[in-house]
Amino acid sequence: MSTRVSKLSDAEFARQMARREIVFQRPTRWWQDGLTIGNGDLGGAVFGGGPETNGMVGITLSKVDVWDERYDRRGAQYRPLAEVRRLIAEHSGTEEGRKFLDTLEPGCIVADKNWVRESYPYAYEPPTPKPSGLVRIDLGAVLEPFEERLSIHRGEVTFTVGDRKKGATISTFVDADSNVLVVQVKRRGGYDRPITLEFARYVDEQLGEPEVSVEGTDFWHRYVFPDGFTYALYGIVAEGEVAKTGTGSGEFRDIEARTGWEIRNGRRGMKIWEVELHLPERKATLTLAPGVSSVTLYVGVATTKETRDPLARARELAQAAAGKGYNAIYAAHRAWWEVFWRKSSLVLSDRMVEALWYQGLYVLACQS
């Protein structure tokens, strides 16, 4: 394997980055198989667009500080994370103290030998990260041909469905400079089916009910956790006329890997399996007026770890992005990623290994 580092022209650099793109020619059903976008604090997985999702494109959102920080001992007792840290500091210095801590650890071997358990629902025992919501774009039909493309050069995912006579393009990214998801939908040709935007969050039985509301052509959701932690999302529809709005309930479908212990032939071992989840959800829905050729959505996200009023802060973020306009915010976003990639360049004789290196670096930039 050989390596070389060189200063490339803009055109050559763009060509090299283009060959490192990820292209799906078949739709993905689950967000776990989606393509990643993010800015290190707010991230998303982009998926769907095929028959399995009725043509709907989904973007799951996650923020690094959205956690259920309670502590679960087999579902029997919750402790704040701060208390867990205090107990560890107080008792970890002695053998007797460590035995005490073992009685608090989930999954430790203190249960009866025939004990069999499933993991904490969706998907791990607290303290655990929690998703921040789901944005769906319903084009009203399944269009073919299909292509989903991740440009690591631009930090952007683009769906291209249908053809010139009847088609649409969906482009989305998480702004590099602010915690705002940006989505732009454009029609092509004679495609005039109604486009619907959904803003959803499943009901987590461990957390209670999320709040979902519509204000004019804006929509928001807020989740107050049992320990008082709160996060909020606020969405603004710009550059497109909304014909109908509403809130309601639906079904959130997902797939999840679970783990547990089982007894086989008198021996205790770990079991791993997959289940399909059907969870109640709360959602806001906005249907665009027929014939709208393009629409842009800005979604701000904030938490009580950043501000006392996360809903107000999320609204400010979305409004600021909408005020700049798509072209300005996209240009600044692309400029950030250009500087990021220009800091170093790596070319390997093994193009597959080279592409994996760049993709791994991209995911790190999105998530940290």
Per DSSP, the total helix count is 6
* Molecular shape: globular
What is the topology, as strand order, of the major beta sheet? 2-11-12-13-14-21-18-17-16
- Please tally the β strands and state the result: 22
**Structural class per helix/strand content?**
alpha+beta
Flag low-confidence runs. 1-6, 106-123
Fraction of helical residues = 10-25%
The main pleated sheet reads as: 9 strands, antiparallel
Give the strand content. Answer: 35-45%
Can you give a write-up of this model?
The protein has 368 residues and is α+β, with helices and mostly antiparallel strands. Helix content is 21%, strand content 42%. It contains 6 helices and 22 strands. α2 runs antiparallel to α3. The chain is globular and about 70 Å long.
What's the arrangement of secondary structure elements?
Blueprint: E1 3-4, H1 10-18, E2 22-24, E3 35-38, E4 42-48, E5 57-63, E6 67-68, E7 70-72, E8 78-80, H2 81-91, H3 95-102, E9 128-129, E10 134-138, E11 146-151, E12 156-162, E13 166-174, E14 180-189, E15 196-202, E16 211-215, E17 218-224, E18 230-238, E19 242-264, E20 267-288, E21 294-303, H4 310-324, H5 326-342, E22 347-348, H6 351-367
Antiparallel strand pairs: 1-22, 2-11, 3-4, 4-5, 5-10, 6-9, 7-8, 10-15, 11-12, 12-13, 13-14, 14-21, 15-20, 16-17, 17-18, 18-21, 19-20
Helix pairs in contact: 2-3
